[in-house]
Write a structure and sequence with these properties.
Blueprint (H helix, E strand, L loop, with lengths): L10 E4 L2 E5 L6 E6 L4 E4 L5 H15 L6 E4 L4 H4 L9 E5 L2 H6 L1 H13 L4 H9 L6 E3 L2 E5 L4 E6 L9 E5 L5 E9 L15 H12 L4 E6 L5 H15 L3
Parallel strand pairs: 4-5, 5-6, 6-7, 11-12
Antiparallel strand pairs: 1-2, 2-3, 3-4, 8-9, 9-10, 10-11
Length: 242
């Protein structure tokens, strides 16, 4: 696929596969292109950011629109741009639909965004139109994008109770890890983290991608299997689990 990723500020990972590191919180957004469909992994932290991503996808692809969205986990910097993609089919780990549909959880998401520095009006606007997944993944689900199949896998819990990763077959295999893996800082464990299960989630992630895969953290530079394995051991020591 003839896509000039770098000209639009994106990083090419494989044929028809790229990602962008968004400013401020350094959250990753991934894009996978098939012949008939375009999948976006995460959507940014606001409607403004989502609209910018929508315009960039159109520029990258000659006017194509995002047809599918996979939400890596339900934190504000990854989900609040989803409503900018009208008509896209939204998927998430099982339970994400209920969490993003409950008023108290939506309010908690808004408050967390403001606490981290998002403009209060922008946070309220995005939460008001927040898009919850219509399709949930409890194990694995394959999507046919036209000439390319990708795999969504619910490998958590870990960073949250609803961690969904994306495997794009290669070569090279590309795995979008969400915040199960972070490179630009220590993995963040908030009140919704399940530390006792996090190392197991990374074991499943490594089994999914294998030794030669490209692993894309939720924040930071692309890493390899050795980095993921080291982070797994660091998390096991940090949380005193095996």
């Amino acid at each position: 696929m003839d896509v000039d990723w770098e000209a639009c500020g994106w990083e090419r990972l494989a044929d028809g596969v790229g990602r962008r590191r968004l400013p401020r919180w350094d959250a990753t957004v991934g894009l996978v292109l098939g012949e008939r469909a375009a999948l976006l992994y995460d959507t940014g932290s606001s409607l403004t950011e989502g609209a910018e991503l929508r315009a960039q996808v159109a520029e990258l692809t000659g006017g194509r629109r995002v047809t599918h969205i996979a939400l890596g986990h339900p934190h504000f910097d990854h989900v609040l741009g989803a409503a900018a993609f009208s008509g896209a089919e939204v998927l998430g780990a099982v339970g994400t639909d209920e969490l993003l549909g409950r008023e108290r959880d939506r309010e908690a998401l808004r408050a967390d965004a403001v606490r981290h520095g998002l403009d209060p009006e922008a946070a309220a606007e995005a939460v008001d139109v927040l898009v919850a997944p219509k399709h949930v993944v409890s194990g694995e689900r394959t999507l046919d994008l036209g000439g390319r199949q990708v795999l969504l896998a619910n490998v958590g819990p870990g960073h949250t109770g609803h961690d969904l990763v994306l495997l794009v077959p290669g070569p090279p295999e590309v795995v979008f890890c969400g915040d199960l893996v972070e490179e630009s800082g220590e993995p963040q464990a908030g009140p919704d983290a399940i530390p006792s299960r996090w190392p197991d989630a990374l074991d499943r992630l490594l089994a999914l991608g294998g030794e030669d895969a490209v692993y894309v953290p939720g924040h930071g530079a692309v890493v390899d299997a050795s980095f993921v394995r080291r982070q797994r051991e660091e998390l096991a020591r940090r949380f005193e689990v095996s």
